[in-house]
Amino acid sequence: MTDDRLIFEKSSAGRKAFSLPDLDIPEEDIDELVPKDLLRAELNLPELAEIDVVRHFTNLSRKNFGVDSGFYPLGSCTMKYNPKVNEEAAKSPGFTDIHPLQDEAEIQGILELLYNFEQYMCAIFGYDAFTLQPAAGAHGELTSLMMIKAYHRDKGNGKRDKVIIPDSSHGTNPASVSMVGYHPIVVKSNGRGNIDIDALIKAVGDDTAGLMLTNPNTLGLFDEHILGIADIVHQAGGLLYYDGANANATLGICRPADLGFDVAHFNLHKTFATPHGCGGPGAGPVGVNKKLEPFLPVPRIVKTVSGFEFSISDFPKSIGRVHSFHGNINVIVKAYAYIRSLGAKGLKEVAENAVLNANYLMERLKKYYYLPYDRPCQHEFVISAKWQKEKFGVKALDIAKRLLDYGFHPPTIYFPLIVEEALMIEPTETESKETLDAFCDAMIKIAQECETDPEIVKSAPHNTPVGRLDETKAAREPDLKWH
Ligand SMILES: *Cc1c(COP(=O)(O)O)cnc(C)c1O
Predict the structure, then answer these.
(1) Pairing state of beta strands 208-213 and 162-166?
(2) What is the CA 50 to chain-centroid distance, rounded?
(3) Are 284 and 322 in contact (CB under 8 A)?
(4) CA dihedral 405, 411, 412, 416 (to 10 degrees)
(5) Is the CB of 267 under 6 A from ligand 1?
(6) With bands split at pLDDT 50, 70 and 90, how would you rate the model's confidence at 362?
(7) Which domains does the chain have, with CATH numbers?
(8) Mutation pick for ligand 1 pocket among 170, 214, 412 (CB with most ligand atoms within 8 Å)
């Protein structure tokens, strides 16, 4: 350990990677210009040449896995290729050099872009209006539930406080429900991976505020009874919420608003190819139909005869702001570029290819891994390491780690919770047949290793910069600082 630390320490006193212009104010004025408590004689910073800094960060980045360096089939996360043209568009000075406090007259360009983006989202998903403020999917859920709550209060139904959620739901769903002071009611899935209709009928009542559903759900399966489900919830006086974090399978094919969902969020950092992960800024715009439109966050951008402007006063029932200023606008610019470069036909092809790729992988892998729901999937599917665990003591975690040795990012594991030893795979539309085949070959090879040499799988990874980590210790006692 000590040796590693010595190698890691690259600082050398007096070395530097900058040259500053000479001080052009009298030194005696500094005391006056800079408050005393902000002045430090010693700055304990590493001292390095530019080349050392560049190599340090470049080498660190290469130790990590990213969607630009390899296949990343992380189910329910849509880690697809992020086209570089989106980045080019978003870094134009016209977008980066503006300030949210500028006068509306000076920022008509970005206002028009945001206004048009809202129109595109309405057209793609069937809604009457959108808010672009939420910074993530979970934030979109919270925003939506706040609107649902405001809607019921407005109708004098303030005592409705239960939200029905299937047992396959994403973990953020029940968490968002609790955050607005509602209570999640979990209903079972049936043998086809759909909502159990009898269980749903028993769960709804005059205390139902709504239902939250992902369709296709986190098993990658489309619930064919969605119109009936919508009727049951609406007749009970509840609203339907669509978790559209991953809308890859349905773009241009079907629209959640047409299926009966009153409100929905969509992750631009998943479906619309903006960068994603490591907590980087995302965006989870929320679409609503007429029932919920009055409650949308403000300010909203409206079009007037003289141009685009922010409006607050026109929306007295609004839940207010859910983000400082207007959301993560730079993310929206990237998603705008993505939509404009693909067009309606291209977006539909996204869905067709995402579904085709997932079904191709599923068909190739189902001979080697247990497939709990054997029917055509949408953009993702869930297989299980149940056979490997029962026969050879190898778990989904081990298989995920072994994939790293073959140069692939592991799929999502142990989710959804209703499948034991789950491996949830989402290839996305941006991968070629060669990449899909290489991934299948690695998965099949690992299935064979489980039989012939299970230890090599259980002790994986072997080829990565660090070996198998104690993940519990890493989470409980993180050591993140270089002293
Ligand atoms: C990713 C995801 C979310 C949450 O989105 P964040 O941007 O991570 O907050 C919610 N639901 C589903 C189905 C998801 O896949």
Answers:
(1) parallel
(2) 35
(3) no
(4) -130
(5) yes
(6) very high
(7) 3-62 (no CATH), 84-341 (3.40.640.10), 351-476 (3.90.1150.10)
(8) 170
